[in-house]
Amino acid sequence: MQRVSPTAMFSRRSLILSGSLAAVASLPFRSASAQTTWPTKPLRLVVPFAPGGSSEIVARAVAAEMAKTIGQNVFVDNKPGAAGNIAMQEVANSTDEHTLILGHIGTLAVNPYIFPKLAYDANRDFAPITLVSKVPSLYVVHPDLPIKSLAEFIAYAKARPGQLNYGSAGNGSAGHLAFEYLKMVTDTFMLHVPYRGTGPMLTDLMAGRLQAASVGAPALLPFIKAGKLRCIATGTAQRLPQLPDVPTVAEQGFKGFEMTQWYGLLAPSKWSKDHLAKLEAEAVKAARSALVKEKLSQETALAVGNTSVEFDAFIKSEQARWKPVIARAQIKPEGMG
Fold it and tell me: In the chain, what percentage of residues exceed pLDDT 70?
């Protein structure tokens, strides 16, 4: 048997090692960040309103479903104040690529036209992800009010101009818009009382300190069924299966009237395209899931789950729709009216 000298063996091993290193060097380079799976920590879904309203119901439903497949927990963080502007500014300025926001008719289609200067641009600073849900607006009154229909309410208000108060989650909120829209088409005069969120407003409405309000169906149904509030009309095009005996505003003499709230996910536009694409895929999947559809249907909300391109077009169409309404109603932020 031929013996191999230690020198020859070392040379052979050196050649093998050199070949291996050359093979590794020829592989495509991947940075540490590229190898990291996003998200790397829990996602924070900011809701720009106080707890207790439709926004929280929608946010928690989609967050719970997204957490099942996106690889991290998704927690809801309520940040009310300044008609949602505080939360919008905070998220627009965030840099961790793990903070997103629940956009809304108010923050995206109303605030740009009622605030003379915002610290964020609704179109430039945010990337639309998906429209999660549309929520029917209901018109309700305190049960002690001696009325049973929209016609009776209009007659009651016209006989007492300026004596009735209606509440909303704040100036420029969906509830504010919905009631101003109703006031315009019915030619009635009532006083607006803005609150910092739907929850506090409903507390005063059920206590009788307010006479009326318009709120998304999910937050109102339990109180309507319990007799704590009376629904006199829905803002939908057709009657709701959950309230089959309540006619729409259109049915009660105002043809073409329709008012719904809507909620969608957005992220800061400076996120990487890969992260935005993954977030869109997971959010759309969650919004279209059977569990989210069932959950929102139970709350009288419609799950949507469209694409980011479709959501972007929808936002722009809503901005075009509400800009003239805001101008006619002369809606202004608190302290400027």
Answer: 88
- For the chain, how big is the Rg over CA atoms in Å? 27
The first and second tokens of residue 52, run together, are: 């207790």
- CA 252 – CA 177 distance, rounded (Å): 19
> Running DSSP on this structure, what letter comes out for residue 67?
T
Nearest to 214 by CA among 250, 254, 181, 239: 181
Q: Does 28 have pLDDT greater than 80?
A: no
Query: CA 322, CA 123: separation in Å to the nearest integer?
Result: 15
DSSP letter assigned to residue 5: P
3-state helix, strand, coil in the chain (%, to 5): 45, 20, 40
- Cα 170 to Cα 191, 233, 312, 333: the distances in Å are 13, 21, 25, 9
Q: Strands 191-194 and 260-268: what pairing?
A: unpaired
Cα torsion 51, 57, 62, 65 to 10°: value is: 100
308: three-class secondary structure by DSSP: helix
Residue 53 has pLDDT above 90, yes or no: no
Q: DSSP 3-state assignment of 57?
A: helix
d(CA 134, CA 137): 10
Q: Indicate the Cα dihedral angle 158, 159, 164, 167, nearest 10°.
A: -20
Contact 325, 177 (CB under 8 A): yes
Region 13-26: mean pLDDT is 48
Q: Identify the H or E element spanning 7.
A: helix 6-25
Distance CA 74, CA 306 (A): 20
